[in-house]
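Predict the holo structure. Ligand: cytidine-5'-monophosphate.
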Amino acid sequence: MADQGIVRGAAQVRILLMVTGGIAAYKSCFLTRLLVQAGFSVKVAMTESATRFVSPMTFQVLSGHPVATDLWGEDQSDALDHIEYARWSDLTVVAPATANTLAKAATGIADEIVSTLLLAQPGPVLMAPAMNDNMWRHPATQANVATLRERGVHLVGPGSGFLACGTVDEGRMLEPEEIVAAIKDLAVGLEPRPQPEALAIPTFWEGQQVLITAGPTHEAIDPVRYVANRSSGTMGYALAAEAVAQGAMVTLISGPVDLMPPRGLQSLVAVESGQDMAAAVGQGLQAGAQWLIMSAAVADFTPSNPATGKLKKEDLGTGWQLDMSRNPDILAEVVPAHRAEHLKVVGFALETEDVQARALGKLKAKNMDYVVANNPTEAGSGFGAENHRLQLLSSGGMIWASESRPKTELAKQLLVELARHQSR
Ligand code: C5P
């Protein structure tokens, strides 16, 4: 079958693949791969029992997206907004669909991630049942199947063959190739779902491995005192949240801040000092990051000899000198050691004079691909201000100058501008 209808202009048909708890879950790994190869954009949700058969990590790697496995976001990597996941998809595929999932879908029960997503998403659904032959033939299952068909759910299979329970009978999930063929048939006639404003986003960031640093660093003087700066981390956290919303796999390396981590992160690495941050960035780059966005305000100097016990003011007298040494410059000194050819580096430059020229100087000196410049003394910008104003520059000069806007909006626009510039 030709792939026409699968790629809609620049955007792909979005498939939410729901994997439920049957041994056929292993076949859904192949299904994911085949769908991605066929040009679909795939995100996966799994029931808890499905995760007993196949690790979410397998689906994450195959789909290039975080996997939704629970409603509560107790684990960082699972902290996804399930309603947003449901809204994202053009087509929902449940494979394997167990007798239990069919029953829940037929009766509208929403007590875990998959049944909740099924109830929350209004688009077309295709189910590939898989179960023991007796369970399949049971009048309860057959009644549920009839209900679902009446409601317009597409069912493919089950086929006949060798079942995990040892019999050869009806109940086997169709082979991934057969399910892909059924999906392609459906996708050809599929109208793109209108995306709400917040979700009408470019696909550039989908599946990109993005490393973001945020916040200040704390440089220990002794176990209770430190040297720091005024960075709140808001911009880095907003960028991380927006990159997740745009489909990226985000690792956030955060200095000490008073912010809630965004949901849906790949991981959150909490660090204290510039040295810690340098090590975490090195690790993130080695793990294959495609983007490094250095929005952290790393302390330039750190106490040379931090005390192991609390310094007593009686011992320090009426004045004391703190001996400081330069912290490693992460962009200039750490990144080059781990820089893969594909890596794009975005740095920040806070300047109060001659903003563009100084920011471009930093871009060259620190080998950045892009620099985001801002002037905290400018009207509509600055520390603690609600609104902010940014400029995005590459070695060729200015790419974009923002209006004065909330940081969350700027984060979104910045990612769009980067994507636009990369796609030129
Ligand atoms: O030289 P300046 O500190 O203004 O450069 C700012 C940029 O360099 C930011 O992107 C910041 O995260 C990064 N930086 C760094 N390592 C340091 C200090 C700053 O990577 N030690």
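Confidence is low (pLDDT under 50) at residues 1-11, 74-79, 196-201. The pocket of cytidine-5'-monophosphate is lined by residues 274, 294, 296, 298, 300, 327, 329-331, 347-349, 362, 366 (CB under 6 Å).
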